[in-house]
């Protein structure tokens, strides 16, 4: 499955009654909510003595992906385009790979 195939398949489960503005709002809220669920799993592992629930964390990453797809869809952009733009940005920022100096001295785009 390609990332764009994922986006199409995931969006077959989007509530068709939502208008574009609601899709955008739902997407960014969902990104925050599902990221919080992922953080909570790691928090319990690091601070509360739980075993790292790897399988649960993987499922939450999938939920984050769903909301990423929703937000991209609201913007009429494919996930491939989102990810390609991110890689291009990173190539410019770290042409030789990550360097602390380039991270510390980085100007916001
Ligand atoms: Mg979840």
Describe this structure in words.
This protein has 109 residues and is mostly helical. It has a single domain (20-104), classed as Helix Hairpins (Orthogonal Bundle). The protein is 72% helix and 0% strand. The chain has five helices and no strands. The chain has helices at residues 3-11, 20-47, 54-74, 79-93, 100-104. Helix 1 (3-11) packs across helix 3. It is globular and about 50 Å long. The two termini are 32 Å apart. 13% of the residues are buried. Magnesium ion binds at residues 34, 37, 60, 63.
Largest sheet: none
Q: Determine the structural class based on helices, strands and strand pairing.
A: mainly alpha
End-to-end separation:
32 Å
Which compounds are bound in this model? magnesium ion
CATH topology: Helix Hairpins
Beta strands, count = 0
Portion in beta strands: under 5%
Shape: globular
Output the CATH class name: Mainly Alpha
């Amino acid at each position: 499955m390609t990332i764009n195939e994922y986006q199409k398949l995931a969006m077959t489960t989007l509530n068709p009654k939502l208008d574009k503005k609601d899709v955008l709002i739902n997407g960014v809220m969902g990104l925050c909510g599902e990221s919080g669920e992922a953080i909570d799993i790691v928090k319990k592992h690091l601070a509360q003595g739980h075993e790292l629930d790897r399988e649960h964390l993987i499922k939450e990453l999938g939920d984050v992906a769903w909301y990423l797809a929703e937000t991209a869809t609201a913007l009429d952009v494919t996930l491939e385009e989102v990810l390609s733009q991110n890689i291009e940005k990173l190539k410019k920022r770290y042409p030789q790979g990550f360097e602390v100096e380039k991270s510390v001295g980085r100007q916001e785009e």
